[in-house]
Amino acid sequence: MSWTRKILRVNLTEGTCTPEPLNMEWANEYLGQRGLASKYLIEEIDPNCDPLSPDNKMIMATGPLTGTMASTGGRYAVITKGALTGAIACSNSGGFLGNEMKNAGWDMIIFEGKSPEPVYLYIENDLAELKPADAIWGKSVWETDDLLHQIHQDPQLRVACVGRSAEAGCLYAGIINDKHRAAGRSGVGTVMASKNLKAVAIRGTLGVGNLKDPAAFLQAVSDGKAVLAENAVTGQGLPAYGTQVLMNVINGIGALPARNMKDVGFEGAENISGEAMHEPRPSDGKPNLTTNAACFGCTIACGRISTIDKGHFSVANKPEYWGASGGLEYEAAWALGADTGVDDLDALTYANFLCNEDGYDPISFGCTVAAAMELFERGKITTEQTGGVELKFGSAEALCRMAELVSKGEGFGVDLGMGSKRLCEKYDSPELSMTVKGQEFPAYDPRGIQGMGLSYATSNRGACHLRGYTVASEVLGIPVKTDPVVTEGKAELVKAFQDATALVDSSGLCLFTTFAWSMENIAPQIDGACEGDWSVEKCLEVGERIWNMERDFNKAAGITGADDNLPKRLLTEPAKSGPTEGQVSRLGDMLPEYYELRGWTTEGEVTDETRQRLGL
């Protein structure tokens, strides 16, 4: 069955930890992780609640394949009403915590209420208790992780925690596990800190078993691993360069946004690319990249571990940053680099270290700094607001200084911690915020990749590449090649990617497997592990059910079809140069067809017929 059939309910207000049986009827309809936890959240909270009030709940959830032998089966997710967006939030993370939670015997942990004092949750198999967090409150993620290992004297303890940015109220703070893996987007860490919950520390030794058909499961897993190994992306590109393999590729096709998306294409892309991370630095002869790394059970190993030049201005007098830590991935390198106009690889790495150390999303941070740089360029803010910093595009020093301020919630870092939407509204320039539903864009310009514009606009958690990654088809030709600047057929493509992604996110597997796997590879693994019939058709229906359920929650929270939009800049300002010169996003050509394919009204509302068909 692969589910443990147990959830832990933690009432922070009362200080209680109570086990409950998993609702297996819901598990059969929503599978696990993103889908199942969202079902619990939606049933238990008022969609109009303040995300930072005790009325909001936060759920940490595994999927049924988490902790199994399935390649990449180490994922867990955090589901809540997002602090940044007010929409439903599901932020997915790798590393080792998901496996540890499953091995301790828990499918999900539901946090409700608010503790009167800072606490952390300690779990050792069936033992679960809240402990005072006096010694770790106010500490960074790295300090918190080290202190909890010292307190419990267990090197195998796995820790997920928030940093100082979340405590200071940064609206895009994440939850960091294993020091540099993150449930990073939408402000899930901000919600955690608002509950006076600093950390979750887990040790599990029970193992994961009870597979429905062990022989069939192991065969499906073995077949899947062979496919991953033979694929050019999962077997070669990602292990060698990580997601940073995309920097030069996306820039080359004219779809890399730059300088708060004023430009499409960045002349410094090669300097901050995956290839550049491999090159020895002239200053010390060592490359930025130290090694690659894998999450639990992963045969791809796309993670980056990097080291900064000891003589670099950012760390020259800070030996605590001379050791290797989580390196740049593509989205972070773009947001911290191309979007701010900075092509100093070590400066980007330092800012990324700070995002890991103090637990905030490098995508939202970089994009917010980029918006601030354009505000500075236009005279909307001055050195009076920035504490004397010349906040100019291309300034590596300014980028690093802003990261330090956001980490501690000091000075102009408080404004930056609001996110791009609120920052630009504060300084009377809402049009400069490159966001959808309040969440900052990832690293693909909708003027150069049309399907991604539709995917961003309709995403249930705001602008996000991981809710319908049509780049796979439009750029990489997976599973079929489509023209990135053509709108025909993109509505169907986006819907298919969104539904499939919802299912993968609910399984406990990593989405990167889908560069090589189709649902024909994934469904047999779920079917071998989980009771019931998990055909390809059922899996895709579950994904569609999850998508529509999330949409209904957002509607109840006040987010409507009018929010399925893109910033005016992307719709009206053509790309100035490069392969996509003259292109704008033609969202309006795709949206009506998308609504029709979804079975929604022309205003983007789920119809009763669609709800009935999906059992909502």
Overview of the structural elements:
GO terms for molecular function: 4 iron, 4 sulfur cluster binding; electron transfer activity; metal ion binding; oxidoreductase activity, acting on the aldehyde or oxo group of donors, iron-sulfur protein as acceptor. It holds the Pfam family AFOR_N. This protein is an alpha+beta fold and about 625 residues long. The protein has three domains: about 5-205, Aldehyde ferredoxin oxidoreductase, N-terminal domain (Aldehyde Ferredoxin Oxidoreductase,  A, domain 1), CATH 3.60.9; about 245-250 and about 255-440, Aldehyde Ferredoxin Oxidoreductase Protein, subunit A, domain 2; about 445-615, Aldehyde Ferredoxin Oxidoreductase Protein, subunit A, domain 3, CATH 1.10.599.10. Helices cover about 40% and strands about 15% of the residues. It is built from 25 helices and 19 strands. The strands form five sheets. Strands 2-1-6-3-4-5 form a six-stranded mixed β-sheet, sandwiched between helices. A six-stranded mixed β-sheet has the order 8-7-12-9-10-11. Strand 1 (about 5-10) and strand 2 (about 15-20) form a beta hairpin. Helix 1 (about 25-30) crosses helix 2 (about 35-45) and helix 2 (about 35-45) runs parallel beside helix 22 (about 535-555). It is globular. The model has no long low-confidence stretch (mean pLDDT about 95).
Briefly say what this structure is.
The protein has 616 residues and is an alpha+beta fold.
